[in-house]
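Cont'd.
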Amino acid sequence: EAQVTQNPRYLITVTGKKLTVTCSQNMNHEYMSWYRQDPGLGLRQIYYSMNVEVTDKGDVPEGYKVSRKEKRNFPLILESPSPNQTSLYFCASSLGVAGVTDTQYFGPGTRLTVL
Amino acid sequence: AQKVTQAQTEISVVEKEDVTLDCVYETRDTTYYLFWYKQPPSGELVFLIRRNSFDEQNEISGRYSWNFQKSTSSFNFTITASQVVDSAVYFCALSDPSLYNFNKFYFGSGTKLNVKP
């Protein structure tokens, strides 16, 4: 089954404790992206990646890191989480063709709480 | 700058009523893509439609229809004969790809639709 998976689905942590949220897709997609969803703000793009080793900032990259060492995986790293990073996080992937925006397929979401 | 505005924060209707969700976008590019996604109470994001800027034909899919008007920069979504299962948050999104910066996305703040029996 074609899918985007995220782990963990729920996470409660404390300020300053490094964490990683994993994202994996099995559709051989070139493009992957991370979003955060906050009430009243919709989804905001954090980082995206057009291919292995190629990443770029979205609208809200501060406090986050990403890496794309393999095509299928795109982990989101919070080196020193703070309470304002409490949010619902979504990973997404799409085919990724230059000059064309393909349909994005989203993972199930990760609800992160930073105390 | 690119922007998507969904001015309706929340809409409540009674089952079988028609309802239109508004989406207004801003972009300076001539090539762009518009999307609608549904987020039911379970939380996942479900793709509904993708439309490019060169295709202004309206689209109908069952009870769903979309009205794309470049003149007013709008991409409105209508549900005909609404059902309780349509209750969800609906997001409109914009992407204006280029050869060097493709697939950056901008989402609206969402419209919560409540369909009452």
